## 1
Amino acid sequence: MDRIRGKLRDNKGFELVEMIMVMALLALFGVTIFTLIISGAQTQDRVMAEKEAQTNARIAASYINVRLRQSDSAGKVSVEPIELTGENALLIRERAEDWEYDTWIFVYDGVLMECLVDPGEPPDDLFSFDIVEIGALDIEYDGDGSAVNYTIYYESGGTTRSLESTVCLRSY
């Protein structure tokens, strides 16, 4: 009987070691799962941010294309530099019944904006409407003025990418 009791006492030490090993393995498994979940969430956030930047660039391109096509008539569309940013902007001269106004489309502080002003007035960011966030916009006439070329710059995955487009003017 003493021999059996001695073995039982000896086994209690092994049970403790086994329990500590199981707890260590469970902790290691838990840390691994937690790390995988955090890594997956960060990857998803990065992919979603890249997708949003690409979508915003496409929205900006679509907006500019539509505005150019809506306003394509003689003397209505021009590309002009503005003091506010020092960059070129799209200027559309419009007339609604008895009222004339200018529509400026430009990028200010990373946002594509539209500003309606009296004819000949410069755009003002305080009275402008936000269209969509993008990085920058380069806009110019092509060599003979028959088309408007523009490039939209945006950040995607820590890299500056660009979306280029050309809109041929029928009114040329």
Note: The chain is about 40% helix and 35% strand.
## 2
Amino acid sequence: MNELVLYNGLIRIWFLLAVMLFIILFFIAAPYGRFSRMGWGPVIADRIGWLIMESASVIVFTICFIQRDSPTTTTILILYLLWEIHYVHRAFIYPFSRSSSTSKIPLSVISAGFLFNVINSYLNGRYIFSIADGYTNEWLLNPRFTVGIVLFATGFFINRQADTILSKLRKHGEKGHLIPYGGLYRWISCPNYFGELITWMGWAVMTWSLAGLTFAVWTAANLIPRARANHKWYLNHFPGYPPSRKALFPWIW
């Protein structure tokens, strides 16, 4: 059995698992952040946990790039850099930019996140750098690339803005949860998730690949139920929570 057969089988299974996860997460909130709870095994500092999970995407995607079979075009370099910019930030900057916290994350969650990032990075990296016919420089002029990169950049900006607002929410030494304001928090409870979803929708369009689409589906499967849970949590814990805010999509839901 050659790699292409295994790859195609894996990506189909991966898509089905995303659909299953989407259903499960509406009933069980992943045990990290404000939903941390006992019973999920040993825990470590969440900053170290995020570094371990997200660095897998940096490493695996880079390995796929180094071992590429496709010619090194400007398009290939742009796709590589966009992925790495996102995940270098997620692994090495974001966890340490937040206000001081003693939060813990279970090793079971870290293991699941690490495995997801390894497989997801392999599926996307292997397709872009080796399996695809090649992203030539002409692809830069394709409307799908243009629309995709605009969505990616827009989502990246929204996500960074939301995370920045959260990182500045508590003063030094202050503990507990507060209501965030500013940016898209004016309309939704989870603009960081909204930005993340737009980012990977842009990636799916920009690469026009089943791997990219599967990643966007995984992102939605994870973040839509999480946004719903976060929104309900805010409503339950803050009687004065802005009633006009939606969970994830402005003015809609």
Note: The first strand starts at residue 43 and ends at 45.
